[in-house]
Amino acid sequence: MKKILALIVLALILITAGYYTFIYYVPFSEGTRSGELIKFSNRGLIIKTWEGEISQGISGAQIFSFSVEQDKIDVIKDLQEFQGKYVKVSYLERYGSFFWLGDTNHFITSVALEKSPHSPTLRATVPK
């Protein structure tokens, strides 16, 4: 009886570990999005996560919500600096998310300033 119970517990542990590994390491999609960075904040009561939004339309009707993992310090600093500017982000979409990583399934991997199509005479300059 103890041997069967131990096998059941071991199977549950392996299934749970497999699920978490799949969710974290297997991407659903990868891509880029461009738009005006309208929101970027560190939110949460007990566990803080970095969350943001990009407006992809003139009227703000198309909003792309994203999260940034805590260990992406350069991306976090760039997003804080580029607030209100037109940016291009590369992201990784996962099948699911964990509450300690973020609220969305889209995780930003890099960010760069982009020329705005709404004012073609203005060029974005990367601060030094």
Fold and architecture overview:
With 128 residues, this protein is an alpha+beta fold. The chain has a domain at 27-113: Nucleic acid-binding proteins (OB fold (Dihydrolipoamide Acetyltransferase, E2P)). Helices cover 26% and strands 37% of the residues. The protein starts with a helix and ends in a 15-residue tail after the last strand. The mean pLDDT is 86.
A few lines on this structure:
By secondary structure, the protein is α+β, with helices and mostly antiparallel strands. Helix content is 26%, strand content 37%.
Q: If helices are DSSP runs of H or I spanning 4 or more residues, what is the number of helices? A: 2
Quickly give the structural class.
alpha+beta
Shape verdict: elongated
Biggest sheet character: 5 strands, antiparallel
Q: What is the alpha-carbon Rg in Å?
A: 19 Å
Spatial strand order of the main sheet: 3-2-1-4-5
Key attributes of the depicted protein:
single chain; alpha+beta; 26% helix; elongated
Topology:
Elements: H1 2-25, E1 27-43, E2 49-55, E3 63-68, H2 73-81, E4 86-94, E5 106-113
Antiparallel strand pairs: 1-2, 1-4, 2-3, 4-5
